[in-house]
Amino acid sequence: MQKKSFSFITVVATVIALLSITALATAPLSDEDKGFTETANTATQCAQQLNASRQQTYSKKYIIPEQLKLLSWNIYKAQIQGLYRDLAQLNQQADIVLLQEAIEDQRLSALKPYWRFSPGYKSGDVQSGVMTLSRWPATVHCTFTHTEPWLRSPKATNIVEYAMADQQRLLSVNLHGINFTLGTEDYEQQIDAAVQVMQQHQGPIIFAGDLNAWSDARQAVVINALSKLGLSEALYLDDKRTKAFGLALDQVWTRGVTINTTRVPQYQSSDHNPILVTLHLNEVIDETLTQ
Q1: Helix axes 185-199, 43-54, angle to 10 degrees
Q2: What is the pLDDT of residue 241?
Q3: In 3-state terms, what secondary structure has residue 11?
Q4: Pairing between strand 140-147 and 38-40?
Q5: Which pLDDT score, from 0 to 100, does residue 151 have?
């Protein structure tokens, strides 16, 4: 009996292992894994990759259209029932998807043909971070990480470059802001890391995410940093964005972009409401804005 039990357990373990291997083998590969996108993990590497990208000409499969639909949502690590159902519905309405508190899960990475993940906080086996998905491959993906000064947990910033027609580029910044600080010094450092990249960019920019701008001081950091680069915050006729102390945590800022519509539908499957934006990419902006 003992030998039979051992054999049965061995067979079950083998089957589980094979199923796990099969699941991993069929999981959608990221842009980097497919060899479509260059990757950088430091500001210096990011600048080098972006400079190299601007010298290249990309095939048609990389070229994004002028009209785009954007979704930005903190999905609360997909902990609430109904999240995947609601996200799948919203995903159908978007060309580019910016997720905060995303997790490494096939149900997320399979939403779009192309995706990139920047790891942040990890609890046990669950790795969370920010994920940017799109209908087109990216040219460059930069990952920055900043540490919460109290909790020592990392927060991620995901910077993605897309190719446009006529050798132009769109820069997309997906940021989950540092939360628990006494002052704004650590928060400013996180925003400034993205600003340094945006300063070198000559085309349209989308800067979005859960910025955790829950105080006047934090909001001032965001406004001062982004407005100097010519970015403007999206406006909402019916603003149902998640707020703390009366200030919206989730924001969308753009430059070189005309926003046609904004919408904030209400869902119970996350502690944040999503933002949907339809936009048009404009011609290259005046270079003096980046000086």
Answers
A1: 20
A2: 98
A3: helix
A4: parallel
A5: 60
User: Helix, strand, or coil here: 14?
Assistant: helix
H/E stretch holding 164 reads none
CA distance 9 to 19: 15
Q: Find the radius of gyration of the CA atoms of the chain.
A: 20
* pLDDT value for 28: 82
Query: How many CA atoms, within 13 angstroms, populate the side-chain half-sphere of residue 245?
Result: 8
pLDDT digits (tens, 9 = 90+) for 16-45: 444 443 444 456 888 888 889 999 998 899
In the DSSP assignment, the letter for residue 146 is: E
| Confidence tier at 152 by pLDDT (50, 70, 90) | low
β-bridge partners, 141: 39, 160
Taken in order 168, 47, 96, 241, the sign of the CA dihedral is negative
Query: Counting beta carbons within 10 angstroms of the beta carbon of residue 17, is it exposed (0 to 12), middle (13 to 18) or buried (19 or more)?
Result: exposed
Looking at the DSSP bridge assignments, the partners of residue 252 are 208
pTM of the predicted model, to two decimals? Answer: 0.87
CA quadruple 74, 76, 80, 84: dihedral sign: positive
Q: To which residue do tokens 């969370």 refer?
A: 128
Encoded tokens for 257: 């972009």
CA count, 13 A, side-chain hemisphere, 60: 0
